[in-house]
Amino acid sequence: MSTHSTNSSQLPCPTCGLSSGAESHVCELEIALDWRMLELRDEIEDFERAFWSYLETAHGTFAQWLAVRRRSHAA
């Protein structure tokens, strides 16, 4: 049997990740965004790998060329 009891007032906030004993906890936007990015880090890394892999394909190379062309004509 575990001697460690979980006190719900010390659990991290699901929105910002901070442990706060105060019931009137208010999340700060920047901290909440940092926490969300931390939660999504694996998905972000997967997306970046897939994106860079796509850019190495023929379609990705064409998409890059087209984007540069459109930007130069828009200026």
Spell out the blueprint of helices and strands.
Layout: H1 29-39, H2 41-55, H3 58-74
General description of the model:
- Helices cover 57% and strands 0% of the residues.
- By secondary structure, the protein is an all-alpha fold.
- The protein has two domains: 1-39, no CATH class; 40-75.
- The model has no long low-confidence stretch (mean pLDDT 87).
Biggest sheet statistics? none
What is the alpha-carbon Rg in Å? 22 Å
Which structural class should the secondary elements be placed in? mainly alpha
SSE ordering: HHH
Strand content: under 5%
The DSSP helix count reads: 3
Count of DSSP strands: 0
Report helical residue fraction. 55-70%
Low-confidence runs: none
**Between the first and last Cα atoms, what is the distance in angstroms?**
69 Å
- Mean pLDDT, to the nearest integer, reads 87
Cα shape: elongated
Give the number of domains: 2
What would the keywords be for this entry?
single chain; 75 residues; mainly alpha; 2 domains; 3 helices; 57% helix; elongated
Summarize the structure.
The protein has about 80 residues and is an all-alpha fold. It has 3 helices and no strands.
